[in-house]
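User: Here's a structure from my thesis project, written as structure tokens. My advisor, Dr. K., wants to see whether a designed sequence matches the one we expressed. Can you design one independently, without my sequence as a hint?
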């Protein structure tokens, strides 16, 4: 459900959402910069890939009502990374 809402809110594909990184989010401007997509290979490995065209690299707005959820998620990721790097 959350993945579907994210796809709809950002007009992005699921592979594009899966490939998002922390730096892609501009919380002040409520934007997400889509630069890559993620694909699943036949052997179940995941790989990042460049978009098929330059037009697929874009900044998209996300709704203000998602700001709290996105901020919370980014904080969780940051905390998990700092915990795992110790």
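Assistant: Designed independently from the structure alone:
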């Amino acid at each position: 459900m959350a993945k579907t809402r994210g796809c709809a809110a950002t007009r992005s594909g699921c592979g594009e959402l899966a490939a998002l990184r922390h730096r892609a989010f501009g919380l002040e401007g409520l934007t997400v910069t889509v630069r890559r997509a993620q694909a699943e290979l036949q052997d179940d490995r995941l790989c990042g890939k460049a978009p098929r065209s330059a037009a697929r690299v874009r900044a998209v707005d996300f709704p203000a009502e998602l700001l709290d959820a996105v901020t919370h998620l980014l904080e969780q990721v940051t905390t998990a990374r700092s915990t795992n790097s110790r």
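When you compare it with your expressed construct, this may help: Residues 24 and 33 are 5 Å apart (CA to CA).
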